């Protein structure tokens, strides 16, 4: 009997794992890019957009001052909302029913009324309390001098934000396993030390993503204070187009600046999410550049890496 030659199998490193082809992904991407290109071409070639006016006022001094007021309101109101939100969240988890009910009523009242109504109420606080005494004899403060339009904006946005932040922080605290608090108590930590040193650091990975969304929402909500004549970005834009009657170009200027600031906030949020997710999840959130490279990849990195090391 003649012996037959057996062809040896190829080694593992001679193979490359190719991803499955998805032609409709490319088709849909090309269609979307084409539609976006047509839209962009229409906007650029349409003289009614008045791009010369947009370029003229894009770096106007009053616009720059409005951006500063917008960022100031965003930072101050978010800090006020976060600090007060943490306090309210701890109060809502208290074993004292009176403290828990007070925090619940605060959240109920501020979440149940529109932000614009709250801003107008704070702005007209002097109609209810013309003299602010804080219950201290001999103290008489003029409410009109204390509650300025800027102060009314900070109180309206910050106190309203605290109601939403309290629910975010409370959800983050409840996401931490109760065994962590029990272990901290066994080590001799009191309730406050356990909350600050054990529970809250672990809850940050749950708190950060919605807090970033709230910060971006706060950035856009600052436009509501234009009704109080606070010279933020939108109000500065309105003052300009009230003089030159270029309504659409000035609103486009404001929109572009809002998009720029929102993009910066979004990048910062993504960095914080990746930082606090390290060591807590197998799938750490990636940046948009990493996702784009992954979508365009032809071969699986595991296969190429394995072949390179062998």
TrEMBL record:
Domain ABC transmembrane type-1: start-end pairs: 67-269
Localization, UniProt: Cell membrane
Membrane topology of the entry: Multi-pass membrane protein
SUPFAM superfamilies in the cross-refs: MetI-like
Transmembrane segments: 26-44, 64-91, 103-123, 143-160, 223-241, 247-272
Pfam families found in the cross-reference section: BPD_transp_1
Similarity comment text for this entry: Belongs to the binding-protein-dependent transport system permease family.
Record-linked NCBIfam families: HEQRo_perm_3TM
Protein name: Amino acid ABC transporter permease
Species whose genome carries this gene: Leucobacter iarius
């Amino acid at each position: 009997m003649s012996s037959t030659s057996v062809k040896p199998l190829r080694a593992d490193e001679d193979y490359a794992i190719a991803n499955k082809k998805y032609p409709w992904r490319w088709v849909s991407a090309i269609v979307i890019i084409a539609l976006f290109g047509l839209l962009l071409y229409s906007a650029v070639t349409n003289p009614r957009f008045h791009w010369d006016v947009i370029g003229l006022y894009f770096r106007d001094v009053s616009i720059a001052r409005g951006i500063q007021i917008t960022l100031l309101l965003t930072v101050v109101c978010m800090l006020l909302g976060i600090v007060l939100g943490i306090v309210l969240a701890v109060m809502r988890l208290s074993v004292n029913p009176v403290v828990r009910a007070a925090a619940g009523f605060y959240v109920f009242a501020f979440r149940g009324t529109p932000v614009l109504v709250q801003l107008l109420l704070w702005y007209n606080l002097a109609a209810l309390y013309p003299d602010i005494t804080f219950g201290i004899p001999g103290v008489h403060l003029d409410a009109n001098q204390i509650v300025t339009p800027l102060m009314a904006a900070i109180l309206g946005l910050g106190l309203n934000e605290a109601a939403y932040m309290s629910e975010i922080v409370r959800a983050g605290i409840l996401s931490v396993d109760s065994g962590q608090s029990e272990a901290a108590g066994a080590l001799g930590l009191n309730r406050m030390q356990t909350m600050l040193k054990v529970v809250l650091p672990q809850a940050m990975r749950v708190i950060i993503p919605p807090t970033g969304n709230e910060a971006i929402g706060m950035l856009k909500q600052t436009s509501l204070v234009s009704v109080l004549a606070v010279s933020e970005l939108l109000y500065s834009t309105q003052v300009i187009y009230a003089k030159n009657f270029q309504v659409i170009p000035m609103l486009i200027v404001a929109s572009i600046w809002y998009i720029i600031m929102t993009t910066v906030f979004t990048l910062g949020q993504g960095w914080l999410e990746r930082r606090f997710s390290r060591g807590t999840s197998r799938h750490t959130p990636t940046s948009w550049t990493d996702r784009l490279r992954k979508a365009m990849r032809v071969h699986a990195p595991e296969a190429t890496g394995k072949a390179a090391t062998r």
